[in-house]
Amino acid sequence: MDPVRNPYAPGAGQRPPELAGRDEQLAAFDVVLERVARGRAERSLVLTGLRGVGKTVLLNALRGAAVRRGWGTGKLEARPDQPLRRPLSSALHQAVRELGHPEEDQRDQVLGVLRAFAERDAGRDAKLRDRWSPGIDVPPARGRADSGDIEIDLVELLGDVGGLAQDVGKGVAVFIDEMQDLGPADVSALCAACHEISQSGLPVIVVGAGLPHLPAVLSASKSYSERLFSYQRIDRLSRDAADRALAAPAAEEDAEFTPEGLEAMYAATGGYPYFIQAYGKTVWDLAPRSPITAEDVEVAAPEAERELAVGFFGSRYERATPAERDYLRAMADAALGQETDAVGAVATADVAAVLGKKPQSLSPARDALLKKGLIYSGERGRIAFTVPHFGRYLLGQE
Questions:
Q1: What CA–CA distance (Å, rounded) separates 47 from 214?
Q2: How does DSSP assign 231-282, residue by residue?
Q3: What is the DSSP letter of 377?
Q4: Contact at 8 Å (CB) between 92 and 157?
Q5: Residue ranges of region Disordered (predicted)?
């Protein structure tokens, strides 16, 4: 089949041609936007799920919905080695610009507070690379959002930005990807700011996305975070949604799958959106003609698996040290023959038993893998891969 017309798009955060199976989340977010715009109380939103389920894609789609309503929006990706101030400042600067407040004095006043917030940790003698360059012409404000306490400063900053949005009858939405990578102080500050904003009724919401243990991260910071956010688990697609993700783009290119071909694709991909796009692209390129059959899927599967092994699984596996790789393989071995839960979690004691070591001696490897985002702990004493089918990949390597 013509590779130029291949409609499938495997890529990190790349929107698929058919955003199937997320209608419920998009509709719910439209309600949130409308309620906030009308001054109604509404919680911020947190999306959780494994890697490859389309959290970033959905986050971008939600942002697009806010932009279409005229909201000010900004997005950032949290990183373990980066404090929140600078990336959040850039995101809020973009949001303020998108609001288009007609009163220049009021806008400049908020921009001055924003600049003061961003530059608080950079002293007078800070190097150029440590200074924030936001393109804000107004001087930094004094006595507002510049105390040095991130919790106090963030509450004040979001309060001022929310007031600016309220003036023009719009809202502000901040989108945070990889939210579990925020530092403890930043998580605490963000929760406190969301709590304060919700009490004051200002039109500001935070939409975060992260791995399945993100709710536990937030709860450990502030006990009230369980009631502060609306949590939505983003999972693999149902069979109907997966079929639509494959069939609709194909139909746009005057092609189709046989029913058996769609069944074979679901069996191979497990309904995970990234795998659907990866397999879809490879199967399209190798299939001789339309309709695409189960035999075409069988022929293309090894090539699709090879590409996933390099780009999706292998790139993550290479980040692990030899000791950490032993731990990962032991997790895969421990899951064999066991009845695991929905995410394939195994007991840390079982992993230690596979390696013939005491659980305490494996703590450094486990903690390092947690920090690298290769595994997560949804409950005490149990761990799971953050990447679907990773255990299968590891067993195949052996």
A1: 9
A2: EEE--PPPHHHHHHHHHHHHHHTT--B-HHHHHHHHHHHTT-HHHHHHHHHH
A3: E
A4: yes
A5: 1-21
Domain boundaries, the chain: 23-233, 238-317, 322-397
User: Which residue(s) pair with 369 in the sheet?
Assistant: none
- CATH of the domain spanning 23-233: 3.40.50.300
Look up the CATH architecture of domain 238-317.
Orthogonal Bundle (1.10)
Instruction: Tell me which amino acid residue 28 is.
Output: A
| Cα 207 to chain centroid, rounded | 10
Q: Is it the case that residue 121 has pLDDT exceeding 80?
A: no
d(CA 262, CA 297) in angstroms, rounded, equals: 9
pLDDT digits (tens, 9 = 90+) for 344-359: 789 999 999 999 999 8
| Count of residues making up the chain | 398
The model's pTM is 0.91
What CA–CA distance (Å, rounded) separates 249 from 243? 10
Tell me how far apart the alpha carbons of residues 233 and 212 are, in angstroms, rounded to a whole number: 8
Our CA angle for 62, 66, 71, nearest 5°, is: 155
